[in-house]
Amino acid sequence: MPKFAHEMLREIYEQPEALRRTLDLYLSGDGLVAEMAERLAKWASPTGEILIAASGSSRHSGLAAEILLEDLCGLAVDVEYASEYSCRGGNGQSESRHPSVLVLSQSGETSDTLAALREAVRHGQKTLAITNATGSTMAHEAVVSMPLAAGVERAIPATKSFTCQLAALYLLALYEGARTGRMNAAELDTHISGLRAQCDGIAAQLDGWREQMAALAAKYKDASTFLFLGRGIHYAIAREGALKLKEASYVHAEGYPTGELKHGPNALVSDRVPLVVIATVDRALESSVQRYEKTLQLLREMKAQGAKVIALANTGDEEVASLVSDCVWVDPAPEYLLPISEVAPLQLFSYFMAIEHGVDVDRPRNLSKAVVETV
Q1: Over the Cα atoms of the chain, what is R_g?
Q2: Confidence at 29, pLDDT banded by 50, 70, 90
Q3: Residue 38 in contact with residue 210, Cβ under 8 Å?
Q4: Domains of the chain
Q5: What is the pLDDT of residues 224-281, one digit of tens each?
Q6: What is the pLDDT of residue 372?
Q7: What pTM does this model have?
Q8: How far apart are CA 117 and CA 185, in angstroms?
Q9: Burial tier of 324 (Cβ tally within 10 Å: 0-12, 13-18, 19+)
C-alpha cells in the first residue's frame, strides 16, 4: 500500500482488508459460523422487535440496519439517538413492548451509548453490542458481543469502522434470516457471495474515486452548504456523507430522504448550495427500480431548475450522467450491499474538501474519538 499524508486517507484505503477480516470472523467457507448463530439466538426477541441505540456515524449504520432487518428478516426495528434513549421515561417503551436492544459504537466506550445499554440491561432487555474493541465495556456488559476487525482507527472521522459496521449488520441480517427461516440455503449463499465481492469491488474502485473526488473538491470548495439525498437504505449513506463532510472539512451539509427535497430544503438550492444525490439502482429488485425512477424524475426537475448536482450512479449509467453536473461511478451491486460501496467516495470527498480548506483532517476541532462524558 502506498504512503499516505494522513491517517484518514490510509484508513479509507484499508477498508477492503478491514472488511475481509471482519467477514472472516463470521463466515466459514461459504456459510455462517455456527457458534455465532448460537450466541445470537440468546439475543433474539420473541416478539421480533429490535431497538437500535447509537450516536454519530454509528447511528447512520443503524439506520441502514433498520432497512436490512425489516426488509430481509421481517423484524420490527426502531432507531434511537443513544443520547435520547436513556433520558426518556420508561425508555420510551410501553409495558407491552420489550424489544431486544442493539448498541453500536466504534470504541465501545461512548458514554451516551453505554448509558443506553445499561438502561436496557436494567429493564431486563436482551442486548447485543457491535464494537471495534473486543475488550470494551459495551462488549463485556452486553449479553452478546459482535466485534469488528477494522483494526485501530487513528483519525477521528470514522471510515473503516463504519463500513465494517455495515458489513457486520448485513451479517446479522443473514443470521436472523436463517434463524427465522426467511432465507433458505441458496439465498444465504447468494448474499454471502455478494458480501465477499464487495471487498474486491471497493479495492478496484478506490484509485478512480480518489482522483475524481480530489477534482470535485477543488471544483466545489467555495460551496457554503451541501444537501445529500438518498432513498431507502441509501438515506443512511446520505446522512453519513453529510456528517463526514461537516466533521472533516467544517463545510455545512445535511442529509435528507430524496423525496423530501421539495418539502422545504429546495429553497436553499443555489449556485453555492449543490446537491449530492445517490442514484444507484439494483435492476433485479423492483422496489429499487421504483426508487431509481423517482430519483431520475427529481434529477430532471433539478436540471430544469439549474441546480448543481453531483450524483453517485451505476457505472455506465448515461441517463443519470446526462442530468447532472458531475457523475461518480459505483459498480453495480445488490441493493442492500450498495451502501458499503457508496460511502467510500463520499469519505474521499470529505477528505479532499478538508485538504482544500486547510483542515487538520485527522484531528478536527472540538471532536474526540470516543465521547466519554455525557453532554
Answers
A1: 20
A2: confident
A3: no
A4: 7-196 (3.40.50.10490), 205-356 (3.40.50.10490)
A5: 999 999 999 999 999 999 999 999 999 999 999 999 999 999 999 999 999 999 999 9
A6: 44
A7: 0.95
A8: 33
A9: buried
The C-alpha cell at 96 is 407491552
User: Beta-carbon neighbour count of residue 103 at 10 Å?
Assistant: 31
Amino acid at 236: A
Residue 217 has pLDDT above 70, yes or no: yes
Cell of 335: 441493493
Other beta carbons within 10 angstroms of residue 293's beta carbon come to 10
- Residue 373: the pLDDT is 36
Secondary structure (3-state) at 58? helix
CA distance 203 to 372: 34
Total number of residues shown for the chain: 375
The residue whose grid cell reads 429546495 is 266
Gap between the Cα atoms of 108 and 132, Å rounded: 7
Instruction: Please state, in angstroms and rounded to a whole number, the distance separating the CA atoms of residues 191 and 197.
Output: 10
**Average pLDDT for 198-223:** 98
Neighbours of 126 (CB within 10 A): 20
Please tell me the chain's helix, strand, coil percentages from 3-state DSSP, rounded to the nearest 5: 50, 15, 35
